């Protein structure tokens, strides 16, 4: 049995999801969003770091997985996302967790069967795979998808 922390980083909202894998079965342990308060960007980065650190402390995952940065058009937004991702990565590695990184298309492929799935499709499949009845915030669903993706790929050479 292994417990995996999935992280969907964002400078305004960082999603997290903790999944426990036992053989071929997956169970959602916890999920949610870290929403830093408005204010200086450095304060938001600190809140992301602290939030991930608290999730690790509370749920004791053995491994972590983070979604890679996707750059579409806005370079400034991509830089901020990269910094938020760095804060989350630092928190996970400071806790001694091995961290894997996955491209968004790989995560979508692992959960839905297609690398071009919509956010709604990802959320639907995450809820179905983990038997979650209540609606999920998009960032939390994405984080759970990252954890499930890592569960499929862990131990494989990349």
Largest sheet: 5 strands, mixed
CATH superfamily membership: Ribonuclease H-like superfamily/Ribonuclease H
Q: Quaternary arrangement of the chains shown?
A: single chain
Order of helices and strands: EEEHEHEHHH
Strand order of the largest sheet: 3-2-1-4-5
Instruction: Report the strand count.
Output: 5
The average pLDDT is 95
- Tell me the count of domains: 1
CATH architecture heading: 2-Layer Sandwich
CATH class: Alpha Beta
Proportion of residues in extended strands: 15-25%
Q: What would you call the shape? A: globular
> How far from one another are the termini?
22 Å
Q: How does the SSE layout of this entry go?
A:
Layout: E1 2-8, E2 14-22, E3 25-34, H1 41-59, E4 63-67, H2 75-94, E5 99-102, H3 104-112, H4 119-130, H5 138-153
Parallel strand pairs: 1-4, 4-5
Antiparallel strand pairs: 1-2, 2-3
Give a structural overview.
The structure is a single chain. The protein has 158 residues and is of the alpha/beta class. The protein has a single domain (2-153), classed as Nucleotidyltransferase, domain 5. A five-stranded mixed β-sheet has the order 3-2-1-4-5. The protein has five helices and five strands; from the N terminus they run βββαβαβααα. It has helices at 41-59, 75-94, 104-112, 119-130, 138-153, and strands spanning 2-8, 14-22, 25-34, 63-67, 99-102. It is an enzyme of class 3 (hydrolase). Its main location: cytoplasm.
């Amino acid at each position: 049995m292994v417990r995996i922390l999935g992280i969907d980083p964002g400078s305004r909202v960082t999603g997290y999801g903790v999944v426990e894998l036992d053989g071929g079965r997956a169970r959602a342990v916890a999920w949610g969003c870290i929403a830093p308060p408005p204010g200086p960007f450095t304060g938001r980065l600190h809140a992301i770091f602290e939030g991930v650190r608290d999730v690790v402390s509370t749920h004791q995952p053995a491994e972590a997985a983070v979604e890679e940065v996707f750059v579409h058009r806005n370079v400034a937004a991509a830089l901020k996302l990269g910094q938020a991702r760095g804060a989350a990565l630092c928190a996970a590695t400071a806790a001694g967790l091995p961290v894997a990184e996955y491209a968004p298309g790989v995560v979508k492929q692992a959960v839905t069967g297609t690398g071009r799935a919509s956010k709604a499709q990802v959320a639907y499949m995450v809820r179905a795979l983990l038997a979650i009845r209540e609606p999920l915030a998009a960032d939390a669903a994405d984080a759970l998808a990252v954890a499930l993706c890592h569960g499929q790929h862990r131990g494989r050479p990349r």
